[in-house]
Write a structure and sequence with these properties.
The chain is an alpha/beta fold. The chain is built from 15 helices and 27 strands. It is globular.
Length: 476
Amino acid sequence: MYQQYIGGKLVEGQGRLMNVTDPATGEVIGTVGCATAEQTKQALHDANEAFKTWSRTSVNERTAWLYKLKEACTAERDYLIDLVSAESGRPYAAACGDVDWLLTSLSFYAEEAKRVEGTVLPNLRTAGKQNYQIITKQPIGVTVGHVAWNYPLGNASIKLAPAIASGCTCIIKPSSETPLATLYLGVIAERIGFPAGVMNIVSGPSGEVAKTLNESDIPRMITLIGSYETGLKLMQQSVTSLKKYSLELGGNAPVVVMPDVNLDEVAANIVAKKVGFAGQTCVNYNRIYIHESIYKEMCEKIATELGRVKLGRGKDEGYIMGPVINRQARDRMLELIEDAVKGGAKLVMGGEIPKDFQYGNYITPALLIDVTDDMRVSREEIFGPIIPLQSFSNLEEAIEKSNNTIFGLSAYFFGHNAKEMSRYFEGVRAGEIFVNGGIGSEFSPHAGAKQSGIGCDKSKVSLEEYYDIKFLSIIP
């Protein structure tokens, strides 16, 4: 039985029992006693009390605790990897990436907090006297992090690490789909004697736990990695007091492929992106626009590359794609494919429920060609292993198509003409644009435009959100 972590202690959840299943097999791999509204309120209270002292600790002390937590997590890295792989369906290599993201975040924010600086303004004279003016920063208070299921530990890390490093306290709510690895952080934290109330982890139904967190007037900032609809609901629930928000709400990423690319490299990149964790990432390729002069050949090369992929789980060898998170997600993939085919798209391969994996949530990766922008597969975030291709004739058309969405998280461009790169960068509204397979890191900000969210995850830009500005004017 997995326990909640509240006020520095592991406690049994007093709510209903919740089974967590392996998406690859359908087997129950853990049971969680869910937190109740009262236990959630206790976590809020404990975080609020802890803030009174934690906010006054030195950055050196906060850094030391983050490194102590990292050391303890590193010692249990293999176990955490197995938990992430089992509860999310990630193949082993992808699960390693999620755990390592946690470890990187803990040290990154520990070091970055040392470089948060104030400002001394030029001296003024007031009534003939010197007037010294100083701008400093102080931790904002209790923070809440609602974490998405696709990166259980990575997503949790970019909420808890900046909060702790800045002198805030935090409450992390993992997704009910993948709570086990995050709750196990509580086991580790209790074992090393992490300061009580600074980090709390509560899991349970959103209608009870998340609602209680959002409606409370204790949090000074609420953060979320989730859907656009969830973000709107969160904001509606949380108007009980003025709060800061950092909301990453997904996207509908366009991909533009110009005719001067290496077709084999781009085909391999597209397939790898769409089958990596079965396409279940918010920055994944969603609408793939290929220049008409290379469209037919690129479709063929992508089909050939996709033929190398096989279904599997865990430590299976080869070019492996795992399951989607649950049956609802799998069935939605089938609906998107059916809608596209009815609208005139052609299903070249995949999009089937494999007989050999009938107990899991598997679907074979699908390749759709001749897709149009009015189809659901173009209008909705896919979040799954569907590769939808369509052609375009010129860059201005591609930019217009790229912007034809309410979302603006990530956008991708493949091509080597500097003018075209610049035009795409200037013309597309998105928080991050990647050219020729470029990737982000802990140092790079992850922010969205339009309805893809507000605020920022990762980088020193994210850390700044955990501070209030404080101004001091002194006449000696």
